[in-house]
Design a protein that fits this description.
This protein is mainly α. The protein has seven helices and two strands; from the N terminus they run αααααααββ. The protein has a two-stranded antiparallel ribbon. It is globular. InterPro entries: AhpD-like, CMD-like.
Length: 188
């Protein structure tokens, strides 16, 4: 149970109920981080709008690179909710989630492409404390994905660091978007 309880639908005003209905329809359940943040309506709205805009803007990178890098941040920071939700997103993207079991061996595992390895190593370097990103690493990413791609990857990794740290601080744990290897939430 989170350190701050979720705002229940019965306690929600009209706009919050509408938001809950929208995301519930999209994901099969209201994401708990969203329901917890609903205690602060202005930040709730800002966060929701931000997430929608980031999703719409993130079209430069291949989805597999983006989703794996975000997932890697979740595993590095130990955010059970992010791992659960991220696995579901990968299922919805049609990605192979079986290889997520090998993510710690991404540097040598044949389950990952060279592009994915670049994104995963960058996620590790950005998530390390202190950050260990190098000029050479960014140059290699730019050659592979272009400047827009590097900015998108950097933004997505930084955003997941924020999400995972917030969820961990508030003790928001796995919600059941996936169960073992199978996604319990139907594809949209």
């Amino acid at each position: 149970m989170p350190r701050i309880p979720a705002v229940k639908t019965a306690e929600a005003g009209f706009l919050l109920k509408l938001a809950y209905k929208f995301v519930g329809k999209r994901f099969g359940a209201v994401p708990e981080p969203m329901a917890v943040s609903a205690h602060h309506p202005a930040l709730f709205r800002a966060s929701g709008l931000h997430e929608v805009l980031v999703e719409k803007a993130s079209k430069v990178l291949p989805p597999n690179v983006r989703e794996l890098a975000v997932y890697r941040v979740a595993t590095q920071l130990g955010c059970a909710w992010c791992i659960d939700f991220g696995t579901m997103l990968q299922v919805h993207e049609g990605l192979d989630i079986e290889r997520l079991k090998k993510i710690d061996d991404y540097a040598t595992s044949p389950a990952f492409t060279d592009q994915e390895r670049l994104g995963l190593a960058y996620a590790d370097a950005m998530t390390a404390s202190p950050v260990t990103v190098t000029d050479e690493q960014v140059a290699e990413l730019e050659r592979e994905f272009g400047r827009k791609g590097v900015i998108e990857l950097t933004y997505q990794i930084a955003l997941e660091n924020m999400r995972a740290r917030m969820n961990s601080a508030l003790d928001i744990t796995a919600q059941g978007f996936t169960s073992g290897d199978a996604c319990r939430i139907p594809l949209p």
